[in-house]
Fold:
Amino acid sequence: MIKVLVVEDDPMVSKLHEVYINQLDGFKLAHTSKNSEDALEYLTNQNVDLVILDVFMPGKDGMELLQDIRSQGINVDIIMIS
Structure:
């Protein structure tokens, strides 16, 4: 089972990701984060296999979160979406 973290500040887009992921065999939505800080905290405490990451978010954007994830050595695949 591939556990997926969705990082998206727009609730409607986040819901679309959730519905799609739940329709895929072998994938499970692990968590949804509305901002980079929540996502990084979740990633440091939980194991996920894939992050669907929005580029444009208020505060720390997706590119900055990507840098934080890589600099902390968190081993996760990432798909960035704009």
